[in-house]
Amino acid sequence: MGADVDLEQEIQELKRRHNAVILAHYYQESEIQDVADFVGDSLALAQAAAKTQADVIVFCGVHFMAETAKILNPTRRVLLPDLKAGCSLSDRCPPAAFRAFKEKHPEHFVVSYVNSSAAVKAMSDVICTSSNAVKIVNQVPRDRQILFAPDQHLGRYVMKQTGRDMVLWPGSCIVHEIFSEKRLVQLKVQHPDAEVVAHPECEEAVLRHADFIGSTKALLDYVLKSPKREFIVVTEAGILHQMKRGAPDKLFIPAPPDNDCSCNECPYMRLNTLEKLYQCMRDGTPELTLPAELQTAALAPLRRMLEWSL
Ligand code: 13P
Ligand code: SF4
Q1: What's the CATH number for 7-85+269-289?
Q2: Does residue 286 have a cis bond before it (omega within 30 degrees)?
Q3: CB contact at 8 A, 60 and 36
Q4: Which of 164, 183, 232, 294 could serve as a FRET partner for 18 with CA atoms 20 to 30 Å apart?
């Protein structure tokens, strides 16, 4: 790429030329968040994708999020700067294995976390995200037992909040499982006035120390409103960009991983770069496409999620 290309300006121009909208997740690098039309958590992004009038949705997030956008708004073209931007939770729940798991519990109502493939969604009764999981599970008919996939930690958290027993798929996120309880406690000792905010994908031992647990958007709203000045943030570090922007006078401390070789950045999210975003808008590729039958089958549980979220 020539040094003379002003990527941000070119991206704005391409957006106008193609009537495109850029949707970005909070875990994207700051430069991408800054050129996006909308930055949000997975629920807000799905809602924005469902109602956009733009011809092209440029999705700066991971594959399952772009897939969700395509399913909810099938007549739009959906571009993803790097198609390899997957998700460990989704990868750890292969459709064939999930089908077999489901067959062992044929009477169960299936609630799948949005961090799953379209094929897994198509086998589900309703989808949830981290921001609406409690609300969704609370609406599952009381006479039905529940199978929850693929994040066991979110599942366990939801069980506690709702009092519903659920059969859990044993999945977890490679980013959220590396936070260490021991190092978090050490950090709390160093910052006794700090509040701990954590994403429900973290392990129970870590969540035990949190003052507030919620989706990325809920964590952001919480720290902006709280009268406290210091926060230990136990989720992917990309969210710190909006926290610092919204409250430049507060201190945000990213929680440390369990060892110095690990990292609290999602390697999949970080496959998207400003340069790849520019190239994909310039070339109209890579485009996310899905077989029509799969799209139709995954739409019903996603629609149900949007209805139950109101
Ligand atoms: P949110 O629902 O908070 O956007 O989280 C998505 C995600 O992938 C967390 O790892
Ligand atoms: Fe998936 Fe974890 Fe990355 Fe979220 S942070 S996209 S759950 S791998």
Answers
A1: 3.40.50.10800
A2: yes
A3: yes
A4: 294
- Tell me which architecture the domain covering 89-173+297-308 has in CATH: 3-Layer(aba) Sandwich (3.40)
Q: What is the pTM of this model?
A: 0.96
The β-bridge relationship of strands 195-198 and 166-168 is unpaired
Q: How far is the CA of 3 from the centre of ligand 1 (A)?
A: 34
Q: Which residues have a Cβ under 8 Å from the Cβ of 205 and sit 6 or more positions away? A: 181
Pocket of ligand 2 (CB under 6 A): 62, 87-89, 115, 173-175, 201, 236, 266, 268-269
- Positions at the binding site for [4Fe-4S] cluster: 87, 173, 266
Residues in the chain: 310
Digit-coded pLDDT (tens) for 267-298: 999 999 999 999 999 999 999 999 999 999 99
Q: Could you tell me the residue ranges of all domains in the chain?
A: 7-85+269-289, 89-173+297-308, 176-254
217-257 pLDDT, tens digit per residue, is: 999 999 999 999 999 999 999 999 999 999 999 999 999 88
